[in-house]
């Protein structure tokens, strides 16, 4: 997976706590965190969209 084009999330302004996203295919979205880039989570558009919507509408569900 090293040939993926990773982009830093716009929701990760802090250089030490960044989330990176790569979408190698329409049905796969990869996520990784800057502290442990070897750990990659894979999901699809609908579950990721639901998570983002939930976090935007329910700030109390965000991890501090």
Structural class: alpha+beta
Number of strands: 4
What is the number of independent domains? 1
Question: Spatial order of the strands in the main sheet?
Answer: 1-2-3-4
For the residues shown, what is the average pLDDT?
A: 83
Calculate the terminal CA-CA distance, rounded to whole Å: 30 Å
Descriptive report:
With about 60 residues, the protein is of the alpha+beta class. It has one domain (about 5-60). It is built from 1 helix and 4 strands; from the N terminus they run E-E-E-E-H. Strands 1-2-3-4 form a 4-stranded antiparallel beta sheet.
How do you describe this structure in short?
By secondary structure, the chain is of the alpha+beta class. The protein has one helix at 45-57; strands at 7-8, 19-25, 28-33, 36-43. The chain is globular, with a radius of gyration of 12 Å.
Summary keywords:
about 60 residues; alpha+beta; 4-stranded antiparallel β-sheet; DUF397; DUF397 domain-containing protein
How does the SSE layout of this entry go?
Layout: E1 7-8, E2 19-25, E3 28-33, E4 36-43, H1 45-57
Antiparallel strand pairs: 1-2, 2-3, 3-4
């Amino acid at each position: 997976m090293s040939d993926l084009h990773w982009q830093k999330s716009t929701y990760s302004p802090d250089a030490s706590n960044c989330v990176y996203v790569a979408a190698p295919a329409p049905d796969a979205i990869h996520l990784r965190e800057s502290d442990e880039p070897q750990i990659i989570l894979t999901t699809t558009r609908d579950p990721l969209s639901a998570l983002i919507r939930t976090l935007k509408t329910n700030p109390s569900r965000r991890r501090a």
